[in-house]
Each structure stands twice: as C-alpha cells, then as structure tokens.
Specification:
mainly alpha; DnaJ_homolog_subfam-C_membr-28; coiled coil; DnaJ homologue subfamily C member 28 conserved domain-containing protein; 5 helices
Length: 108
C-alpha cells in the first residue's frame, strides 16, 4: 500500500508542477433529498453517474411507469385497460425487486 501511496503522491506532484490542478477543487458535493434517500453504499456511484450525465437504469423504469399510468387513465376499452394494468403490475414488481436489490447492495 505504501508503494501505491508514493506513486499517487508522485503523480499529484507532477500534475501540480504542470499546472493541471489550478483553480482549486471541483464543485462542492450537492447534498439534497435524493442524496439522503440513496443507500450510503451507492451514493458515490450514483454521484459519479450524475456528474457524467448518465441516469441510473431505474429512472427509465420510473418514466415507463408514468407513461403506462397515463395510458391507463386514457384507455377507452376494458381489454386495453386490462392489458395496461397487467403491464403496470409487472413493471411495478420489477421496480420493487430492483430497488430492494439496490438497498441491499448499498448496505454493504
């Protein structure tokens, strides 16, 4: 571990000498309600995704759920309503499983 620390120190010294670290540190970490609701073990990973402009896969599922709910509210016939209700129930179950898996993963 000492060798790794020494190598990191050398690379930082080179970057400082080359002027690559001017301007101070990055932006302050944004602590908001979403951060606080994210399991501690996943916070940094999600922050990296957010900084890179990448949404977690679960966000697409939430958007799909909102779309299905809107379609269901606008459905005219019983057959369409039943089909949409079935799709919505399956999607909500998938979301619940994924969120539970993330919760467990985030707890370490």
């Amino acid at each position: 571990m000492k060798a790794l620390d020494d190598e990191i120190g050398r690379q930082l010294a080179r970057a400082i000498a080359a002027g690559q670290l001017r301007g101070g540190a990055g932006k302050p970490l944004e602590i908001d309600e979403a951060w606080l609701q994210t399991p501690p073990g996943l916070r940094m990973a999600f922050q990296v995704l957010k900084s890179a402009g990448v949404q977690p896969a679960e966000m697409e599922l939430f958007q799909r759920r909102a779309s299905l709910r809107a379609d269901l509210a606008a459905a005219d016939d019983e057959a369409t309503r039943l089909r949409l209700q079935r799709q919505l129930a399956e999607l909500e179950q998938d979301i619940a499983f994924r969120l539970e898996a993330l919760r467990r993963l985030g707890q370490g």
